[in-house]
Every structure is written in structure tokens, then in C-alpha cells.
Specification:
With about 300 residues, the protein is mostly helical. Helices cover about 80% and strands about 0% of the residues. Helix 6 packs across helix 8.
Length: about 300
Amino acid sequence: MKSQFLNRIFQILIVLFGISFFTFSLIYLSPGDPAEIMLTECGNIPTPELLAKTRAELGLDKPFIIQYGSWLLKFCKGDLGYSYSMKVPVATKLFSSFITTLKLTLSSLILMTLISIPCGFLSAVKRNKLADYLIRIFTFIGISIPSFWLGLIFLRFFGVKLGWITVSGGTDDLKSLILPTITLALSMSAKYTRQVRTTVLDELQNEYVTGARIRGIKESTILMKNVLPNVMLPLVTLLGLSLGSLLSGTAVVEIVYNWPGMGNMAVKAISTHDYPLIQGYVLLIALFYMGINLIVDYSYKYLDPRLKEER
């Protein structure tokens, strides 16, 4: 087990190196001059002399391999550099944006779970009945509606009409967190409710459920003690993937609500050609995805004892 874990860590390091080189190459080949953009945003006239001086200060006048090697050496020392556009350390900006996105991620996942699991179970147990039809209609509408459109509707109704929230956004307080959370949770719960319903229906057709019913065990006991643990295994995989997606920053929703998270930050960094910030963002998200997948893989043996016995 220890050697397997170390092997996974080694694979993660190799993948991170490949992603860093690939990302750095794409940024280097992308059109636009970050020095010119930075000077323009600061209100300076980008004269040829000033551009040459700024490029030299940022190290942009050096060959590609020198730039990448210098960045990689600093990265190994824990230095992600300074943001060109925001004039702050990249690590500081990533940390502050990550904390803000983490609030939105956890609140959305919790609300989505509270909606999708009960609705999915109810839809499966009441198959082809009124409750099932209503839930399936809800999921169909939820999947069909884009999250940005739902966000705009919420903003107009709760912000413009009722005046309950500030339309301009830009803060991460509890009041500003409510609508983005509901928007993301509703969009995800439609998909997860269908997944829960399908998984529960498959489990209810297994022989152990039939045997439990024949022995006179209550239906609620069968669902909670037998079906639910078996349903959680595929759901944990989906939750892990959703957690990685949300932590990477749901850019559309964050832009609609002007939420100061990872997605909003990434869009601004790309528009200003902020190389260090983009590079740090991509590596951080790649690390999160692989780390979450690693945690999900090792959690299977605790959710399903049969996998632990096979190992």
C-alpha cells in the first residue's frame, strides 16, 4: 500500500511537470504583449524604450527555455512570482481567491446533496407515480436551463425587483453567497437526482433486496442500511469530479454575480496576459484534480469492504 501510494505521488509530480511545460508553451506562443497591456492599464504610454525596459524587468526578453527554466527553479523554491496586472504575489492572490471559491463550492455541494439524494430516492421508490413524474420534470428543466441564465433571472428578481442583494457584487459575505450557491446547486442537483434515481433503481432489482423483503424487513430499513451504502460508491466519484470542477472556479456564475473567486480571477488574468497568475492557476487546479481523485480512490475501500479484501 505504501509503495502504491508513493507511485501515485510520483505520477502526480510527472503530470504536473508536463502540464507546467505545456501551459508555459501555450502562454508564450499566445498573441499579445503582457508588458504593453500592463503599462496601458497603469495609465502609461507604452513607448518603445519603456516597453523594452519593462520586458527586461519581467524577463520577457529572454529565450523561451530560459524563461521556463527560471520559472521552474523559482517554483521548486515555492516562489510563484508576481502578478503582472495586480502587483501582488501570485501565491497570495491564489490563496485569497481559493478561500472565496471554497466557500461557494462547499455550500453548493451541501445544498445539492440535500436536494438530489432525497429526491432521487423518492423518485426511484415512487417509480411511475406522481412524485416520480414531478421530480423528473424538475430534473429535465434543471438540465435544460443554463446556469448563467438562471443567475441573471435571480439577479433581476432578487436584486433589481426586490432589492435584497447588491447587484454589483464584488464581496464574499454571507448575503452575497446565497444566490450563487442556489444557482450552482440547482444546476447540479438536476443531474445528480437522475443519477441517484438510476442507481437506486438498479439496486432495488438486486436479489438481496428481494430476500430482505421476503424476510419481512421494513422498506425504510432496506433503503437506509442496504441500498444507501451501495449507492454512495458511484456518487462519491461524481462528487469528487464536481468538487474539482467547482474549485477550479465556475467562471460563468462567478462573472454573473461578480464573485471574487478562482474563475473570475482566471478570466481577468487571461484577458491581461498575466503569465505568472495563469501558470499558477493552472498548476493549482491540476493539483487539486489529481489530489481529489487520489482521495476518492482510497476512500472506496472504506465505502466498500469488498475492495479492501481484494487488495
